[in-house]
Write a structure and sequence with these properties.
The complex is a heterodimer of chains A (about 130) and B (about 170).
Chain A lengths: L11 E5 L1 H11 L4 H4 L1 H6 L9 H16 L3 E10 L7 E15 L2 E12 L4 E12 L1
Chain B lengths: L12 H6 L3 E6 L5 H12 L45 H6 L9 E10 L10 E14 L2 E13 L5 E11 L1
Antiparallel strand pairs in B: 1-3, 2-5, 3-4, 4-5
Classes of the chains: A alpha+beta (about 130), B alpha+beta (about 170).
Chain lengths: ~130, ~170
């Protein structure tokens, strides 16, 4: 695995629609009306229903897990939501290595993360540190 | 000519005195293999999740939960399901104090430190505290930043994760 600074993670891509959001609402108990119904989304000032911020967080975690496999451990993670995820858009979670540190426990890799949709709207920014044990 | 009044602060003495107070403590039911599988299927949908999240599980090979798995999403022992408080005063309402006179809530982000992973069979205890109030002048007026710290431990007292969540109110 290439752990050099600048290396990009293979993106995690999903088309987001009610099918995704309903499944996430079911496991998270997040049946908030503006995630479930276009009319309620419009009441919240959006064009229609919009996706859960926590699902963006899961997509970033999926991105990291798919890249690191079982050899890495996520030590910390941050996320800042920027814009809502609208229905029927394609969301891509991306990341790149921004620092690598040799520690007593192994290589500690710092990642810059983000999600954006197919209309070039940035949905969330994040960071993570992943430890690959020596 | 009328004098414009500018809000100096929305942090009352009562709110300041509440910093560090516990918002809630909850203990989960034991995490089941089915909980883990369902979570993984939902967050990887429509593709299949990694096998380690959807295998047979059981005492000999318990499943490991995805890091962001939430064992408190549905019922917890001693807690009756209730409608979430989605008002701008949700935080102070939990503490039984007067909320600030603000109506808009924005999610300011989350910082998570992970400890040991959550496994099938684990019982997680979470203690959530009011961490701090700070203010900053923004384009739309005075912004109130409220942070909460939630610490999760497992049945052996091992740290599972520490989450600091920030909401911005205006």
């Amino acid at each position: 695995m290439d752990l050099s600074v600048g290396t990009e993670l293979p993106p995690f891509v999903r088309e987001t629609r009610m099918e995704n959001w309903n499944r996430f609402a079911a496991v998270m108990d997040e049946f908030v009306p503006h995630h479930m119904d276009d009319d309620d989304g419009r009441i919240s000032g959006m064009p229609g229903a919009f996706g859960m911020g926590n699902l963006q967080s899961s997509y970033m975690h999926n991105l990291i897990r798919d890249w690191m496999g079982e050899g890495g451990r996520i030590c910390n993670f941050t996320i800042q939501w920027q814009q809502p995820n609208f229905k029927n858009t394609i969301v891509t979670a991306s990341g790149r290595i921004i620092a690598v540190e040799d520690t007593a426990e192994g290589k500690l890799v710092s990642l810059e993360l983000w999600t954006e949709d197919n209309n070039d709207r940035r949905l969330a920014n994040g960071t993570a540190k992943v430890l690959f044990s020596a | 000519m009328s004098e414009a009044t500018e809000t100096v602060t929305n942090i009352s003495e009562e709110m300041r005195n509440a910093i560090g107070r516990e918002l809630s403590t909850r203990t989960s039911y034991p995490i089941s293999a089915s909980d883990i599988r369902k979570w993984a299927i939902a967050v990887y949908f429509p593709e299949s999740p990694p096998e380690r999240f959807v295998g047979a599980g059981g005492p000999d090979a318990p499943l490991t939960a995805p890091e962001e798995f939430n064992p408190f999403a549905w019922a917890a022992p001693g807690k009756k399901p209730k409608k979430p408080d989605v008002t701008a005063g949700f935080l102070e309402n939990q503490l039984g104090i007067t909320p600030p006179p603000l109506s808009t809530v924005l999610n300011g982000g989350t910082v998570v430190e992970y400890g040991v992973p959550m496994m099938e069979g684990d019982v997680i205890t979470a203690t959530n505290r009011l961490d701090n109030y700070t203010e900053k002048q923004g384009k739309r007026g005075l912004l109130l930043f409220s942070s909460m710290k939630d610490e999760w431990t497992n049945q052996r007292g091992e740290m599972v994760k520490r989450t600091t969540s920030t909401v911005i109110r205006l």
